[in-house]
């Protein structure tokens, strides 16, 4: 029986950081529930904006939501009206969550930051969403696999890439697993900077799972760099 671990969690504190950054002994469960539900809702709502990551920071009076996207213009809108609308909708969603679970948490001032992601094809979450968009347009999965791997590996920062699809590919009667790989993907090396994401494509003949691994080289500490030199 295999023992699997999420590549992001496996490297927390080494090459990755927590997506929710706060600590509260009294309201830990309530805050964690809010972060999880809010992040899931934002990812569904902002699907077309190709969001790479949603980070949440909390202080006693302020809740800071950081949205990293390759299409910031879609979220910001003309004159910042889109960002203001999103901010109001986040407040409304938090109110609904607190009302649903009857949590007596002090209301926070919402601060929204939208950051642009450079070279979106080198980020696993955005690459996976691009693949999902193409699958839902009914493009051949073999063509999608080949083009996406070539496009991702074309960047200098990328040392290896692996893309896997699972489901009723091209509407076949039986589901199967197909993958394509180029370069190295050292999953057992903690210092390896491996970006991982999974998304789901919704088609007329069922769902198709998409997984993307992108290896961007090893991350060394200063002491390790000096010893190697």
Automatic annotation (TrEMBL):
Domain KH type-2: 38-118
The keyword Ligase appears for this protein: no
Pfam families documented for this protein: KH_2, Ribosomal_S3_C
GO cellular component: cytosolic small ribosomal subunit
Key words of the record: Ribonucleoprotein, Ribosomal protein, RNA-binding, rRNA-binding
Gene Ontology molecular function: any one: rRNA binding
Signal peptide: none
An individual GO BP term: translation
Entry similarity comment: Belongs to the universal ribosomal protein uS3 family.
Record function comment: Binds the lower part of the 30S subunit head. Binds mRNA in the 70S ribosome, positioning it for translation.
Subunit composition and interactions: Part of the 30S ribosomal subunit. Forms a tight complex with proteins S10 and S14.
HAMAP family registered for this protein in UniProt: Ribosomal_uS3_B
UniProt-recorded name of the protein: Small ribosomal subunit protein uS3
Source organism of this protein record: Candidatus Sungbacteria bacterium RIFCSPHIGHO2_01_FULL_50_25
